[in-house]
Inverse folding.
């Protein structure tokens, strides 16, 4: 009854529809309905039952059973009949019946001629012509430089043209002292010394500034400074987990090797495109090259113990946002609301990463990968399918349709040429490398020594007789391990030769025997110990249970290995799918409209304090448009044509006149209060890293050592390495970083610049600022005895500028008054408790006053501010 | 800019300080930098910290549940959902909700066809009954808050326009997230009225806020009002209430005060060069505040002195309600000590209340975490005589859909949802506005989120139109209108 009624209504309406109405019916009603309920199976790729509903032509071809639609005749159309459940198979298959209103609409649509519209459409409804209307999805084309390129630096021409449109003109240039401090902090993360400032200020040489820029870009500090910037976006995180047991739950041990790769790559000026390729697919790009494999820490860092979907989800979401400014994240559960990204795109992107896993390879000199190693990725299983999660729910994967790797549809068809890659043996069997045996043997020998020492200790104490016996047995076992290891190494090395050497089977058998003999001794030792524990446990059930379990384990281990021998290391697949390399090459391609623009925007924001595209991680339709579209495109094209030369782009930016503008306010603030059109430089606040590193550098205490394992984040007050090298994980960051808007290792596309009292307290009360102030005061006093000279020098040293007359007066008065105050300590009230600096305040009242003044200067707004 | 005006009184003030008893509380420092010292030389003047008219509330405690609390399973129970349970919306007499004019008004940023209305009506997942002395229907998940309904003015007819969690930012700024990071309500209050207590920030933020998706720190930011008006986040960690709160025994208290004084003078001298740098202004103030906060903030966050009875009132004696109980107790302690605006988040960066599935489990647990602490806060304020002048607001970014999402959840729902206010001159025991029979649209006394802002500011004695900043145009809806019907 219901059915015939809806049909009747549909027939009535369809007869009177205009062509525009018919098209509307499709785009507004039928298309979303098909997307939701039909296209999952009946698309151009899957073509379940031979039916593809993604275009009118395909639809009209019908299914393997013949036509599905008779135009104008819904009642005779199989498609209508199966969704209306008039005939079998009931559609959607295994799904709920469509709402009656929807069924009626389908009837109406068939009646009206099954209109699809005329625009070029992707099977999933991504309308490419529509897509191309969005600026960021079109490839950048180099715009003409305004004014015919008269300006030395095209950046200035573009900015000037934009200013002129808003009746703005460039403000004054920054003073030289301000400029040199700005560019030092910007490029190398520490301020210039007073001597460097002075040399620049007095120099008349026209190329003096450019020369400084070149020197800074060539110095190792550049990689350390900009490495930290990129690691914000790429989400550097040291491992975290349950530290008591050393259980890693997130990221990887030794992930610092990727941090070091980043710093080195920047300092070598590796092309940005190459960096992307190495991070996403270094193991496929240069298999066997461990120095490149380090880069894949970018992926390994996403490893998550409890849920692989979270892990791969993070890779998909942050790779797309970080490199492409594309918020694929939104498509995890449903089609993107603002960008033409169907849900399947999310899973196609994931499919590139589906085969990969994380492993830790041994590094020379350390056999124990808990102590050192190289965390990296590799393709473990090429056959792992990727499924779309229905509504993003991982417990309901759509297993009817495995998803193949592909780039988002909006980029049109991309020829990815995914080619499997044959790996050299050192890549798939890393323990076959020549340095491994020596390290393993050294470790085995160390174990013998350890066992012997333990035995001596047990005898000397003396421990009860059974424990001494167990210790003695452990020495025997450790000694037996050595020949067993040697035999396993020989057997392994024979096993990888082609053709297999004639004695390979004999070698394997010898290894098996020796290993088993050694294991038997270990088991014996354990049994002696466990028996003793068992006897001691008495009636206590818990200890008894433990002892029994140990005993059982020991007895079990007697039987191992049952056959063959234990290889000295794992063998991984000898081929990699090549999927990640294909994706990386596509991202890093000059045909990609987003990659260069996104990177340029990231760089620009860090140089100029504000980005050109405010939504730095979202260049999609819901993002904001660039303030200077032509400038952005010009730079993006320039970047690519210079083969992704990052230093060249930095140089271009920091040698522009815009960069050299003063940051001071002016009347133009009334027209453009947010300085959107760059009539002045933006004032920046130092990041936490800069605050700490600059203090250390100013005191001459900054340890120039580069790289290496992460340092204890609690020891920043006493270890004077760059802040970059200290542990940073979601639950572990230096206090000073936290106070100054640290980069969250989970997500940080742009740091915020808050001003809160906690920052004041960190600098006013933190032990490091006392240590540094006292150190600097002492250094200055030895050179500048008179108070006036001291004050001059202190301002120069800490703030990079001389004091004004007023400031000098205040400071000198302060020194006098403070000195008098310290002379009468009995009248003063010390704080009751709190952390202490390692450098005590001076006992000399005058010197203590100087320390106090320097301490004030480190708290000065001009210290944390980059003008 | 006029150099002399800024620094001429430097020495005399210093002498003034030297003459005073040098009270180590640092009160003297507060006089060092009068509010107007750095103001721009223009006809326009910044607010003077005085209310525009008599205020009913001195302070605000703003409780915000992140993720979207289901209105139909909290403060707006709908028997109609049970009546039509399992039916398609289009089959019920309520079908017109899909096409009425509100849909357009409420969905400015909606892309048609992409975020479908959930059509299968889903019955209420909790029971409800009349609660409080005035008998207001409240879900069984909130028995304690329910018992306080006679203190509360419940608004069941709020709407917003963003159907995604950017609505969190929208609820605080009044604008869709696409419009950027504008001043939030707390920052307007701070900007308009300044501080009640020089020893603590005037605008404090407690609890974990939303992620960057949904406003991030912008939800307690200050936009163009400048960083000095942004919320200051304090950790509610009674064991370590404030990092770096003391310089250690190597320092003298007198010495520290002298340092802060010199610093203030030097920073002011540099303000001559950068007279309208909002960051410099903010930093000067942050140092003044830091000096005074050293002792005041830890004292406010620790609660050793509270009685067991008080702790029980906030649910601190129970594992599940302890964390939020501590936060609500800290809110009261800060408020009591003169913090103008305490913004409290519950739900964190994961938007915990976002129950697309397993609503029963999700809301059941989260309600249990918050019910006692929030009710305890109301009772505690009342018994201390603070409620009269403390405006408590409980809000969330949107409600949840009458229709089912997946099998057992509800989707985002911006068309009509509930919030409530109590104290601070709000009419106690009222229910204002309503949604339709299934809780779809706000139908009677509809209020956009800025009406809540306007009401809060009105109670604080502020006319938002008089806070306008030159060059920053606001439109009518940005100001909202005070909800007269609920004002006592």
């Amino acid at each position: 009854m219901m059915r015939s009624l809806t049909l009747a209504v549909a027939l009535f309406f369809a007869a009177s529809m205009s062509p525009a109405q018919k098209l509307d019916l499709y785009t507004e009603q039928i298309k979303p309905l098909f997307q939701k309920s039909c296209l999952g199976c009946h698309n151009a790729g899957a073509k379940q039952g031979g039916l593809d509903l993604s275009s009118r032509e395909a639809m009209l071809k019908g299914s393997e059973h013949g036509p599905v639609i008779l135009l104008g005749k819904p009642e005779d159309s199989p498609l209508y009949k199966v969704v209306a459940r008039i005939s079998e198979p009931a559609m959607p298959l295994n799904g709920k019946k469509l709402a009656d209103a929807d069924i009626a609409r389908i009837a109406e649509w068939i009646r009206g001629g099954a209109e699809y519209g005329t625009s070029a459409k992707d099977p999933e409804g991504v309308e490419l012509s529509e897509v191309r209307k969005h600026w960021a999805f079109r490839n950048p084309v180099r715009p003409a430089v305004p004014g015919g390129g008269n300006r030395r630096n095209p950046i200035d021409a573009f900015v000037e043209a934009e200013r002129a449109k808003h009746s703005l003109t460039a403000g004054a240039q920054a003073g030289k002292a301000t400029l040199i401090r700005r560019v030092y902090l910007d490029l190398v993360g520490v301020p210039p010394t007073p001597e460097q400032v002075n040399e620049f200020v007095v120099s008349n040489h026209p190329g003096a500034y450019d020369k400084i820029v070149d020197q800074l870009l060539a110095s190792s500090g550049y990689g350390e400074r900009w490495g930290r910037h990129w690691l914000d976006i790429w989400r550097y995180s040291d491992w975290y987990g349950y530290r008591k047991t050393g259980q890693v739950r997130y990221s990887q041990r030794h992930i610092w090797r990727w941090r070091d790769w980043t710093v080195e790559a920047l300092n070598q000026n590796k092309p940005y495109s190459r960096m992307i390729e190495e991070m996403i697919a270094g193991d496929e790009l240069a298999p066997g090259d461990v120095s490149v494999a380090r880069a894949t820490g970018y992926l390994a860092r996403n490893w998550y113990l409890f849920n692989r979907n979270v892990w791969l989800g993070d890779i998909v979401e942050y790779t797309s946002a970080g490199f492409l400014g594309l918020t694929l994240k939104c498509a995890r559960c449903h089609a993107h609301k603002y960008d033409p990204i169907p849900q399947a795109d999310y899973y196609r992107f994931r499919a590139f990463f589906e085969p990969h896993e994380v492993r830790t390879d041994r590094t020379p000199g350390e056999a124990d990968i808990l102590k050192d190693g190289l965390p990296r990725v590799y393709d473990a299983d090429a056959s792992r399918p990727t499924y779309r999660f229905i509504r993003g729910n991982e417990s309901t994967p759509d297993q009817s349709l495995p998803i193949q790797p592909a780039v988002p549809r909006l980029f049109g068809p991309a020829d990815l040429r995914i080619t499997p890659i044959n790996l050299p043996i050192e890549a798939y069997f890393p323990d076959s490398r020549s340095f491994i045996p020596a390290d393993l043997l050294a470790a085995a020998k160390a174990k013998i020594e350890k066992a012997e020492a333990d035995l001596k200790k047990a005898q000397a104490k003396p421990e009860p007789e059974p424990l001494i016996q167990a210790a003695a047995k452990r020495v025997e076992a450790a000694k037996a391990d050595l020949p067993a290891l040697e035999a396993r190494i020989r057997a392994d090395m024979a096993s990888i030769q082609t053709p297999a050497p004639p004695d390979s089977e004999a070698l394997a058998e010898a290894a098996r025997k020796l290993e088993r003999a050694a294991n038997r001794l270990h088991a014996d030792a354990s049994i002696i110990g466990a028996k003793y524990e068992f006897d001691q446990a008495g009636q206590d059930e818990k200890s008894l249970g433990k002892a029994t379990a140990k005993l059982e384990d020991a007895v079990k281990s007697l039987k191992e290995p049952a056959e063959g021998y234990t290889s000295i290391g794992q063998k991984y697949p000898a081929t990699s799918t090549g999927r990640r390399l294909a994706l990386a090459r596509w991202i890093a391609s000059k045909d990609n409209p987003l990659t260069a623009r996104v990177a340029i925007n990231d760089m620009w924001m860090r140089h100029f304090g504000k980005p050109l595209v405010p939504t730095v991680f979202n260049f999609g339709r819901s993002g904001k448009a660039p303030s200077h579209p032509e400038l952005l495109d010009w730079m993006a094209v320039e970047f690519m044509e210079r083969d992704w030369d990052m230093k060249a782009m930095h140089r271009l930016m920091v040698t522009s006149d815009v960069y050299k503008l003063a940051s001071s306010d002016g009347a133009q603030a009334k027209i453009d209060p947010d300085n959107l059109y760059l009539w002045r430089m933006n004032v920046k606040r130092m990041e936490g890293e800069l605050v700490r590193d600059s203090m250390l550098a100013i005191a001459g205490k900054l340890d120039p050592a580069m790289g290496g394992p992460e340092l204890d984040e609690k020891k920043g007050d006493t270890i004077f390495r760059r802040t970059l090298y200290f542990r940073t994980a979601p639950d572990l960051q230096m206090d000073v970083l936290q106070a100054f808007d640290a980069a969250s290792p989970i997500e940080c596309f742009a740091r915020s610049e808050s001003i809160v009292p906690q920052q004041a307290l960190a600098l006013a009360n933190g032990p490091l600022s006392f240590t540094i102030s006292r150190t600097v005061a002492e250094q200055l006093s030895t050179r500048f005895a008179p108070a006036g000279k001291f004050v001059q020098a202190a301002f120069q040293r800490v703030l990079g500028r001389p004091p004004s007359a007023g400031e000098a007066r205040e400071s000198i008065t302060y020194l006098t008054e403070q000195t008098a105050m310290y002379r009468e300590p009995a009248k003063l009230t010390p704080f009751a408790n709190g952390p202490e600096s390692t450098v005590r305040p001076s006992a000399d009242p005058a010197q203590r006053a100087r320390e106090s003044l320097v301490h004030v200067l480190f708290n000065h707004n001009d210290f944390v501010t980059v003008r | 800019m006029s150099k002399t005006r800024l620094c001429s009184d430097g020495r005399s003030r210093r002498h003034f300080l030297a003459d005073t008893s040098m009270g180590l509380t640092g009160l003297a420092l507060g006089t060092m930098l009068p509010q107007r010292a750095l103001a721009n030389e223009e006809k326009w003047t910044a607010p003077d910290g005085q209310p525009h008219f008599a205020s009913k509330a001195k302070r605000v405690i703003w409780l915000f549940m992140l993720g979207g609390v289901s209105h139909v399973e909290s403060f707006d129970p709908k028997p109609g959902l049970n009546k039509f349970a399992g039916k398609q919306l289009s089959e019920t007499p309520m079908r017109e909700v899909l096409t009425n004019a509100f849909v357009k008004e409420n969905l400015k940023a909606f892309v048609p066809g992409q975020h479908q209305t959930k059509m299968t009506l889903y019955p209420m997942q909790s029971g409800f009954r009349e609660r409080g002395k005035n008998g207001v229907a409240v879900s069984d998940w909130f028995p304690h808050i329910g018992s306080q309904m006679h203190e509360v003015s419940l608004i069941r007819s709020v709407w917003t326009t963003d159907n995604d969690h950017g609505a969190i930012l929208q609820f605080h700024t009044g604008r869709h997230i696409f419009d950027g990071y504008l001043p939030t309500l707390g920052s307007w209050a701070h900007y308009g009225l300044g501080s009640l207590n020089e020893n603590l920030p005037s605008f404090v933020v407690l609890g974990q806020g939303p992620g960057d998706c949904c406003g991030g720190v912008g939800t307690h930011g200050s936009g163009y009002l400048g960083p000095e008006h942004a919320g200051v986040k304090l950790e509610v960690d009674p064991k370590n209430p404030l990092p770096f709160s003391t310089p250690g025994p190597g320092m003298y208290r007198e010495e520290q005060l002298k340092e802060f004084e010199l610093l203030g003078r030097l920073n002011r001298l540099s303000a001559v060069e950068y007279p309208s740098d909002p960051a410099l202004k903010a930093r000067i103030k942050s140092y003044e505040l830091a000096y005074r906060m050293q002792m005041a903030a830890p004292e406010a966050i620790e609660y050793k002195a509270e009685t067991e009875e008080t702790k029980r009132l906030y649910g601190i004696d129970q594992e599940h309600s302890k964390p939020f109980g501590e936060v609500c107790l800290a809110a009261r302690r800060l408020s009591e000590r003169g913090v103008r605006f305490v913004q409290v988040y519950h739900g964190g960066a994961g938007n915990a209340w976002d129950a697309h599935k397993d609503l029963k489990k999700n809301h059941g647990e989260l309600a249990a975490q918050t019910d006692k602490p929030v009710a305890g806060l109301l009772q505690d304020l009342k018994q201390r005589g603070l409620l009269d002048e403390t405006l408590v607001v409980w809000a969330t970014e949107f409600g949840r859909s009458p229709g089912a999402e997946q099998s057992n959840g509800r989707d985002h729902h911006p068309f009509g949802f509930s919030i409530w206010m109590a104290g601070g001159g709000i009419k106690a025991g009222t229910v204002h506005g309503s949604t339709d029979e299934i809780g779809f649209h706000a139908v009677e006394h509809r209020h956009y989120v800025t009406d809540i802002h306007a009401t809060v500011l009105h109670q604080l004695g502020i006319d938002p139109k008089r806070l306008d900043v030159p060059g920053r145009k606001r439109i009518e809806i940005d100001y909202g209108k005070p909800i007269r019907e609920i004002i006592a």
